[in-house]
Automatic annotation (TrEMBL):
It comes from Zophobihabitans entericus. Transmembrane segments: none annotated. Residues 1-25 form the signal peptide. Pfam families: Sel1. This is Sel1 repeat family protein.
Length: 231
C-alpha cells in the first residue's frame, strides 16, 4: 500500500510567524525568534524550527538538525513532530533508516489522532516493515485514518476489503470506501470503484450506493484540524 509522506508547505511559520512576501533578512529575523522560543522549550517552535531545517527556509537545509528539533518536540508529545520524526526514520533522512523507530513514532502520533500517521502505520503493518505482517492492526489504523478523512487510508482500506486481507472479501464495503476516496480526490479510486461496481448484483448495487452516501456524509475530508497545513 501507499504511504502519504507529508511535510509542511506554503506558509511554513503560520500560527507562529505571520508575514507577507518577506525578504531573506526578514525570514532570518523571524527564525531567530523561533530559535529563541525553541531553546526555551516551546514544542511548537521546536517543530517549526525542524521544518525550517528540513525545507531550507531561512537556513541551509540540514536534515540532521531537523531531526534534532523534531526529537525535542516529539519528546514533549507534539504530534506533528512525532509524525515528521517517524517520516525521517522511515526515509532515512537526517538519521539512519530504522523501521522500528518509524513505527514507534508513527504510533505516538497516531494515538493522538494524527490521521496521516494512522495511515502510514497501517502500511507498516500491512507490508511488514519493521514488524511482522499484521492485517488486523493494518485494518484498525486504516479505519481510524479513513474515518478522519484521509483519502489514502480510505483507498487502502477499500483495497483490503476488495482483496480480503485480514477479513472476508466485502465488495460492498470496498465500493463505499473507493467512492469516498474518489470524492476526496484520491487518484485511481474512481477507476477502482467502477471496477467493483461491475462485479455487484443489482441488490448489492443498491446497498453499495446507500453505504457510499453514508460514508461520504460522515467521512468527507475537512479543513479544521492541524493536519491540513500538511500535504
Amino acid at each position: 500500500m501507499t504511504k502519504r509522506y507529508t511535510y509542511l508547505i506554503g506558509m511554513l511559520f503560520s500560527a507562529l510567524l505571520i508575514f507577507s512576501a518577506p525578504t531573506y533578512a526578514e525570514i532570518t529575523g523571524q527564525l531567530r525568534f523561533t530559535l529563541k522560543a525553541a531553546e526555551m522549550g516551546d514544542a511548537e517552535a521546536q517543530f517549526y524550527l525542524g521544518m525550517a531545517y528540513d525545507e531550507g527556509d531561512g537556513v541551509e537545509v540540514d536534515h540532521a538538525k531537523a531531526v534534532e528539533w523534531y526529537q525535542k518536540a516529539a519528546d514533549q508529545g507534539f504530534a506533528r513532530a512525532q509524525y515528521n520524526l517517524a517520516i525521517s526514520y522511515d526515509e532515512g533522512e537526517g538519521v539512519e533508516l530504522d523501521d522500528q523507530m518509524a513505527i514507534f513514532w508513527y504510533t505516538k502520533a497516531a494515538e493522538q489522532n494524527h490521521r496521516n500517521a494512522q495511515n502510514n502505520l497501517g502500511v507498516m503493518y500491512e507490508d511488514g516493515e519493521g514488524t511482522e505482517v499484521d492485517y488486523e492492526k493494518a485494518i484498525y489504523w486504516y479505519t481510524k485514518s479513513a474515518e478522519n478523512g484521509n483519502s489514502q487510508a480510505q483507498y487502502n482500506l477499500a483495497m483490503m476489503y476488495r482483496n480480503g486481507l485480514g477479513m472476508e472479501v466485502n465488495k460492498i464495503e470496498a465500493y463505499a470506501w473507493f467512492a469516498i476516496a474518489a470524492e476526496n480526490g484520491k487518484a485511481n479510486a474512481d477507476t477502482r470503484r467502477k471496477e467493483v461496481w461491475k462485479e455487484l448484483s443489482k441488490e448489492e448495487r443498491r446497498e453499495a450506493r446507500a453505504l457510499a452516501k453514508q460514508y461520504i456524509d460522515l467521512y468527507s475530508d475537512y479543513e479544521d484540524d492541524e493536519d491540513e497545513d500538511l500535504w
